[in-house]
Amino acid sequence: MIFLQDPGVTPNTDGLPGLEALRHMVGALQPFGLVVCVAVLIVSAAAWALGSINGNAGYASKGKFGFLVALGATILISSANALVRFFSGIQIG
């Protein structure tokens, strides 16, 4: 039987300087990621629609795939804080 040892390491927000600046920068990147996802959603939806209208299954398929990937990325970016908080049990912010 394998016994797991607790290494005694806990999160320390005072260990290194600059953690607050890093949090601020990551928080500022989140809106940029969402804006890029919205742009990709629009372009992919247009490719999907034009591919469907013109009967080009390849373009329609690529547009649909891009739309779904951008939608998934939007959901993940939007819920990143909640996901980290839920799976780690660490209070963020």
From TrEMBL:
Give the keywords, sorted. Answer: Membrane, Transmembrane, Transmembrane helix
What InterPro entries does this protein map onto?
A: DUF6112
The highest taxon in the source lineage is Bacteria
Membrane spanning stretches: 32-53, 65-87
Name of the featured protein: Conjugal transfer protein TrbC
